[in-house]
Structure formats: C-alpha cells, structure tokens
C-alpha cells in the first residue's frame, strides 16, 4: 500500500508542530518522511534532532546546517526518497487524513508525472494557476482549468513521480520564490503528464495575507532577489521584473501607509 515519500522543509519550527506531521506518520500510504531542517534557531535544531527519530521510525531527519533555501532542501531530500512518488510540503500546510488515499486513487486511475491538488489560502485559490506570458493569474474557480499547457502550481502538496526527477530538478539559484514555477516551466517543456486533482484540497498560509510590515518587507526582499533570477534571461523579462517589484512596493506602501517603502532598495 505504501506508495509515497514525503519531503517537508522545516524552518524554526519543532518537528512535532509541522502542520501535516500526524497525517504523514499515520498514513499507511506513506513510506518515508524526509524532514529537511532549514532552522537557524539552535535550540530548535537540538530539540528536532532528538525528537524526530522518536516521533516516528518513518522520519529521516536532515539538518541543512542553516537556512539553505527551499530548492537545495528539496534536492537534498530527494536523495533519501525510495518510493514511486514524492509529495512535497511546506511546514505550514494543513494536510487532511484522507489526502494520500485520495491521491493514491488518482495514481491508480490516471498515470502521470505530476499530480496537483487545489490549494487555498484564506482568500484565494493559490494553486494551480495559469501562466500568461510572464505573469501568473490566480483562478477564481477550478472550472477555469481547461488544460495543462499553460498551468503552473506551488510546490506544497504537489506529488511527483520519482523517476521524473531524472528530467527535472529544483533550480538552486532560487531561494524561496519561483522555484515551483521554474520546475513547472521545465516540466511542461519536458512534456510531463500533469493531472489536476479537482477533489483534493489543501489549506496553505499565504505571506501576502498577513498584516506585519517588517515580515512583509523581509519577504519582499527575498521575492525581489529570486524574481531577478527567474526573470533574468532577457531584457524584456528584466524590465517586467522591475515593474513587478515597483508594483509590490507600491502595494505595501499603501497597505501600511508608509511611503518610505517606495524608495527602499530591495
């Protein structure tokens, strides 16, 4: 019955407080749970190293020796995966108990390379989304998903046939943002078979929905840096990226009534 390995990246969070951990270790469909720990808090690191093997024999605990970013953590986690399919998760994604049973049904009925759940935040459908030119459009209804030729998605909840990683890996030039879209770009170019699991739902926190100016500015700086890499291939892409960054700064300046954000170097 076991068909899935899980990679979950933790950041300054105790392993027993990873949102999906109970589902991962209790599901009969999960063989191995690889926790790649990007934590920088030494007390959390020490506690996680001790607690992880006690929490479940399924857990493979991998300290990343600092915050190495998501792409490096994903690629490192793949080294410890053995099952036919790999499920990627953030540490703040709520995962219902029936998740892997539902995904297993799709794997049986519709052979594919990538399986995408419907991921919602508090206000929007985060994933899948539609790529149009350089931009990504959030959908309002799953009925808008009429094909997969221009589809993209976030990593959390994505399930990938492990053999497909021989064709595509995660771009380690990216730290947090754009990793999922780059992977999906390359997957489409490789003619990956993609299935949208319309009745499989997850809930994910979305950084743009928080109200914390300092955290959002810190997040903007990471997003801007990664975006310059993602959109760095042509002059037109770089121009688009510069316009996006100014738009993001404008939104934060309005949200927090802080015009200094407009002149901030990010």
Automatic annotation (TrEMBL):
Q: Supply the name of the protein.
A: Glycosyl transferase, family 2
Question: Which Pfam families has this protein been placed in?
Answer: Glycos_transf_2
Family annotation (InterPro entries) = Glyco_trans_2-like (IPR001173), Glycosyltransf_2 (IPR050834), Nucleotide-diphossugar_trans (IPR029044)
Glycosyltransferase 2-like domain sequence ranges: 6-125
GO MF term (any one) = transferase activity
Tell me which UniProt keywords the record has, alphabetically.
Transferase
